[in-house]
Amino acid sequence: MIVRQGYRVLIHNFKLKVIMKKIILLALLVLLPLSVNADSKLNEILSSGELKVGTTGDWDPMTMKDPATNKYKGFDIDVMNELAKDMGVKVTFVPTEWKTIVSGITSGRYDISTSVTKTAKRAEVAGFTSTYYKYGTVPLVLKKNLNKFSTWDSLNKSGVKIATTLGTSQEQKAKEFFPNSTLKSVEAPARDFQEVLAGRADGNITSSTEANKLVIKYPQLAIVQDGEKNPAFLAMMVPKKDKVWNDYVSSWIEKKKNSGFFQKLLAKYNLKSL
After folding, report:
1. Do residue 111 and residue 177 come from a single domain?
2. Can you list the positions of beta strands (E) in the chain?
3. Model confidence over 94-153: pLDDT tens digits?
4. CA–CA distance, 161 with 208 (Å, rounded to integer)
5. What letter does residue 78 receive in the DSSP assignment?
6. Cβ atoms of 45 and 89 closer than 8 Å
């Protein structure tokens, strides 16, 4: 008798959780305009039961792909799993590269991307959700070369090689910060910092978030302690003209901010948003 009662309690609690998820989903839908477009990604996702997410899997700690299991992990991966859970759908991560992450949105290969830096160029063809993370940009050099390259200006000289990864926001920033240097672009899966490690470049620039992880993983690298530049915002990309889908995700982000979800993730990954 006690076992049956316990079983009934478990079933009752499970049903309550399902009902609460549906209530949250409906509450978010109510916030959207009444003229919900049937062609919106939101309608497509809810109908198919699948959320397709484009991700590069090479940006520690935001999105990382384990080559042994082909599974993804990281801050953004947790965000996308939570979004899919709240929507009551499954999530499918679609592999992409930095040079094609925007075209994956415009061509419809996936419904949304993991976070990217908001730039004017990307905003010309893709939509951006509400932001949920802010970071600065810093240079990385070999630790043994810190005396030679101790400032941003010391890297902006003729004969200095700066590595960039094709398609990233840092590629464009490097052109602005180092007009006198020689820029060397590499294509994913190769990364700019690997050129520095191999001695084929004197430095590269990256987010302060990734830089702090890289200097721990590769002790031969060091951050140029000359201050962070170019504060930038991270957001997800969605189809530019799909206001319904964008509004839904942005409303969800704001609710999750208020619930403390993002603060918990920052603590989990030892991150601090600017």
Report:
1. no
2. 50-55, 58-59, 63-66, 71-73, 90-95, 112-113, 116-117, 126-128, 133-142, 161-165, 182-186, 203-207, 221-223, 229-235, 237-239
3. 999 999 999 999 999 999 999 999 999 999 999 999 999 999 999 999 999 999 999 999
4. 20
5. H
6. yes
Is the pTM above the cut of 0.85? no
Judge if 150 and 111 occupy the same domain: no
User: Tokens 């499970």 identify what position?
Assistant: 14
CA distance 214 to 58: 12
Tens digit of pLDDT for each residue in 159-182? 999 999 998 989 989 999 999 999
- Which 8-state DSSP code applies to residue 111? S
Specify if 15 maps to a domain.
Answer: no
Query: Token pair of 239, please?
Result: 């189809």
Does one domain contain both 169 and 94? Answer: no
Domain that holds residue 108: 31-129+236-268
Amino acid occupying residue 180: N
**Total count of domains within the chain:** 2
CATH of the domain at 81: 3.40.190.10
Task: Look at residue 20 and tell me if it is in a domain.
Answer: no
Same domain, residue pair 41 and 104: yes
